[in-house]
Design brief:
three-stranded antiparallel β-sheet; 6 strands; elongated
């Protein structure tokens, strides 16, 4: 969920200028900066509050609001592909390979991930959703 961060008014103005120049919301500018810091190794690539695990018998995607488990190892890759497809809508996107009990929808500037069995859901900013997709992909390859 969103939180308020206080910044000096000069920094806010700089963020507005950057947002205008890059033609993206301020939150995406900050997300881009975080992505750069992850790439440089200054931040852990895992999204805080999101746990992705894989064992011989089960894969699990857990947030404070959603706890999805599957016996299909392919679940992680399919979930990542679904998140990526919904964050980059295009008429050329193939049908998303939605894994069992996993729902993903676009809600304005955010993505809602839903456990279709229990109805529990979590909402993520687009840039955070893409980081979650990367986290799912990393776990699927571990």
């Amino acid at each position: 969920m969103p939180e308020l961060v206080k910044l000096p008014s000069q920094r806010v103005e700089q963020l507005r200028q950057l947002s205008s120049k890059l033609q993206m919301p301020i939150s995406d500018c900050i997300g881009q900066f975080i992505a750069e810091q992850i790439e440089k190794g200054n931040l852990d690539p895992d999204v805080p509050g999101v746990q992705v695990s894989k064992s011989a018998k089960e894969v699990r995607f857990k947030t404070p609001d959603v706890d999805l488990r599957s016996s299909r190892i392919q679940f992680l890759e399919d979930a990542a592909a679904s998140i990526r497809a919904i964050t980059r809508p295009s008429k050329n996107n193939p049908l998303m390979p939605l894994p069992e009990n996993f729902g993903v929808t676009r809600r304005g500037t955010s993505v809602k991930i839903r456990d279709t069995e229990t109805g529990s859901e979590t909402t993520l900013a687009l840039s955070v959703a893409l980081d979650v997709a990367a986290q799912l992909e990393r776990a699927s390859k571990s």
